[in-house]
Write a structure and sequence with these properties.
Radius of gyration: 30 Å
Strand content: 25-35%
Helix content: 10-25%
Distance between the termini: 30 Å
Length: 402
């Protein structure tokens, strides 16, 4: 049995990297960016007008001129006109280029236009270059606007498009398969006997993975029959880059998963971690470099192990930057077995002094997944001690990785 730190280190050392590919922007959201995105031009690429109104020379307005003859009208997307006189104005629209030889925009609400003459409201004072978004004020041409390693968001899509890129280099989407094992499991919608339980781990694991951008994910259920497990796991290994199992990994007579995986050529990296919940977790690498995570069947154990080990491994293989470590402060005293690391579900709130306060959310054994809905994540209690007084700072792991 290894420690939680050793388990993370072993997965990090063994985890193969996913391939990268160029994808159209329409398919890039949720992927991990694998290139630097540099500005194609200054942003904005010209002095951009920010209000509908008129463009004038500030010096003329400041000298007391309140009446301007409309020289012309300029819309967004049109080449800039040139203001040809101090007593002239060009009607201007939001998003248009600031006309040449003008340096002040007066909003339409501050003028009255009649018979081609714009009269500025009495007492209105304006500043030079007001309502003008200066060229290059966001960033200059060539500036690195996005770095590799980030999950591409809809906002990033706008940035990438503004840099003129039709396609972008990103991590490929791994094919992830989740298999729940157990004779007692019955999927939702099917008749269930009193001695059976609903299948919940598979859908929950798939949801957790898809929430973090891993969309090529699906789950299925297999009963505890070695021949069936061997056949279906062999097929699944051939068609996937990541295999996640839930159940069948402990020491019971029907826990066939480790044996079957060994027979299929999956090399064991470790089996069992000194933690609670999730002690029986198994990890290995297939003959074709598939990552195989066999998680305990208890729901709390399965979800904790997925969040603690599977998601970080997939982030690593995708080239995603590691999220910053977080710390929370215990809201009450906690006592635990010092021989195991404890992953304790908690509800968190931010305090006025900037701390994150963690209140334990008790679970009635590792099968009590319903209690997890009231939690925001879990804290990590070190195996070297068993007393954790209120106010102790401990590592925090949110269910939804930042």
């Amino acid at each position: 049995m290894i420690t939680t730190t050793e388990a993370t280190q072993a997965i990090t050392a063994a985890m193969p990297a996913f391939a990268t590919e160029y994808v159209p922007l329409a398919q890039a959201v949720g992927r991990i960016l694998q290139q630097t995105v540099a500005a194609e031009r200054d942003q904005p690429p010209f002095d951009r007008v920010m209000m509908d109104g008129i463009a004038v020379r500030h010096e003329s307005l400041a000298s007391g001129n309140r009446r301007f003859t409309i020289q012309g009208t300029q819309h967004a997307g049109e080449p800039p006109q040139t203001l040809t006189g101090a007593d002239l104005a060009i009607e201007i629209m939001t998003g248009a280029v600031l006309p040449k030889d003008s340096d002040c925009v007066i909003p339409v609400e501050r003028i009255d236009v009649r018979d081609g003459i714009a009269t500025v409201e009495a007492g209105y004072e304006a500043e030079r270059l007001q309502f003008v978004h200066r060229q290059g004020s966001d960033y200059p041409a060539g500036h690195e606007v996005l770095a590799a390693g980030r999950m591409i968001t809809p906002m990033d899509i706008a940035v990438i498009a503004s840099c003129g890129l039709e396609n972008v280099q990103a991590s490929s989407q791994p094919v992830v398969r989740v298999i729940s094992t157990g004779n007692e499991l019955v999927p939702p919608g099917e008749p269930v006997e009193t001695h059976q339980v609903r299948l919940s781990n598979g859908p929950a694991l798939v949801a957790m993975l898809q929430q973090q951008g891993f969309r090529q994910t699906a789950d299925e259920h297999l009963v505890d029959e070695p021949a069936l497990l061997r056949e279906r796991l062999a097929e699944t290994l051939d068609e996937s880059s990541v295999l996640i199992l839930s159940g069948g990994v402990s020491m019971g007579k029907a826990d066939y998963v480790p044996q079957v995986l060994s027979e299929l050529g999956v090399e064991l990296v470790f089996h069992k971690i000194s933690q609670r919940p999730g002690k029986p977790m198994w990890f290995g690498i297939g003959a074709e470099k598939q990552a195989v995570f066999a998680l305990p069947g208890n729901p709390v154990s399965s979800l904790v192990c997925c969040r603690q080990y599977v998601l970080p491994a997939l982030f690593l293989a995708s080239g995603r930057e590691s999220p910053p470590a977080e710390t929370a402060v215990l809201a009450e005293d906690v006592t635990f077995n010092p021989e195991l690391t404890c992953f304790l579900p908690v509800h968190i709130v931010s305090t006025d002094d900037g701390r994150v306060l963690a209140t334990p959310v008790p679970t009635n054994t590792s099968g009590d997944f319903a209690s997890l809905s009231a939690s925001d994540g879990y804290v990590e209690l070190a195996l070297e001690q068993n007393e954790f007084p209120a106010g102790t700072a401990v590592p925090l792991h949110r269910w939804i990785s930042p």
